[in-house]
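Marked as duplicate of an earlier ticket. Keeping the data here for the record.
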Amino acid sequence: MIGTGILKGMAVTLRNFAGSYFDKERLTTVQYPEERSPLPENYRNFPFLIYDTEDAEAGLRCVACKICEKECPPQCIYIVKSEDKKPDYMGKPQFYPKIFDIDISVCMSCQICVEVCPFEAIKMDKVFELSKRERFDALLLRKNDLEKSNSYYHEIHPVEATEVDAKLAEAAAKKKPAPATPPKAPPAKAEPPAAS
């Protein structure tokens, strides 16, 4: 019979339509902003900088190597390296970014900056409610807007943050010098037998 395919398709559509009103799991509408759907752990939006101590300036992992700035396809990252060095979260003197800006109106959330960072200093955030009334300066995130603690990173990406911290701890353990052992005395030379 002609049209049975159309009737079968309409039956599936009608069943899905009616089921969406009565089956609780199929109710897909969320009353935003009162209700929010949980975001998956691998969700990414815009980058942020991680610091490890209570003080964001002292604990910032970023050493202003500018790799992320060079690799960024839309060139939305702007970094000015400091002239002096400050001790980092491990006490080692490091350069730090005097200026670190990201223009989120240009950022395409590609995560290349995260992939190329050798210090695990830049990660992707889950915050997506960044709409502003102005178009220009309000969409430029400055260093103090981008700094977020390692505990915040653990809240939004728990599995990934634990892996990163373990990797950083392992690298720090490898860099620690082994305990110094006293030098061994050279072996004593045997005296040649006396000739008679």
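See parent ticket for discussion. The chain has seven helices and eight strands.
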